[in-house]
Amino acid sequence: MKRLMMLVVGMSLPALAGYTYEIKDGDYFIGISLNNTESALITGGGGIDLNLFDYSSLKIRNTAPLSLGIGGIWQIIAGDYTKAEITGGEINSLDMSAYAEILISGGQFAQIRSHQDATLTKHIEIICQSGYAYNSTTGFLTGLWGDGSAFNIRLINVAGYSPTIDNIKFTIIPEPATMLLLGLGGVFLRCRQ
């Protein structure tokens, strides 16, 4: 019985560690739909349409520069109970609906649209430095990611749903100088003891 359990666990580990799709440098896709619990990891390249349904998940670490037929992602549509995490890359359009959730801490986006109700929960989390700004006249959200690179994202509202800005939870990370001062303060406190 013990050997059988070890065999079952051993066989399931590669499946748990893998992704249904892996897009790397030089790869370019035209239309991928993730269903059920499928997943994708994107570390380079790009594609045209990426659709997330059911309980699927997506991680984007990087893409090639946004250029049709070469790189970046032109459109991501996330619905149902999907989850995505984006830390880099170039995306033209991100369209959120239903209970989809996304965590963004880097990358470049031309626009984000939300067909979601933000009264109970916020579905988009942006991790950035303090000092971000939203211009309600132009619809642009500007600020700095944790690494200091700038973002300038057009937020598009959809009639009948909460404004996209209301669907964003901002998590502020301290600037590097603040972290250095905190670290030095800890060293001085420790030396005094």
Keyphrases for this structure?
single chain, 193 residues, 16 strands, 17% helix, disordered N terminus
Question: How big is the Rg?
Answer: 20 Å
Order of helices and strands: HEEEEEEEEEEEEEEEEH
Strand content: 35-45%
Q: What is the 3D form?
A: globular
User: Based on DSSP secondary structure assignment, what is the total number of beta strands?
Assistant: 16
Put simply, the count of helices is: 2
State the distance separating the first and last CA atoms.
Answer: 56 Å
Helical residues, percent:
10-25%
Walkthrough of the structure:
The protein contains two helices and 16 strands. It is α/β, with parallel strands linked by helices and 193 residues long. It has helices spanning 2-17, 176-192; strands spanning 21-23, 28-29, 32-34, 39-42, 46-52, 57-60, 72-78, 83-86, 90-97, 101-104, 108-115, 124-129, 133-135, 140-144, 150-156, 168-173. Helix content is 17%, strand content 42%. It starts with a helix and ends with a helix. Strands 2, 3, 5, 7, 9, 11, 13, 14 and 15 form a nine-stranded mixed β-sheet that branches. Strands 1-4-6-8-10-12-16 form a seven-stranded parallel β-sheet, with no helix packed on it. It is globular, with a radius of gyration of 20 Å. Strand 13 (133-135) and strand 14 form a beta hairpin. The protein has one domain (19-192).
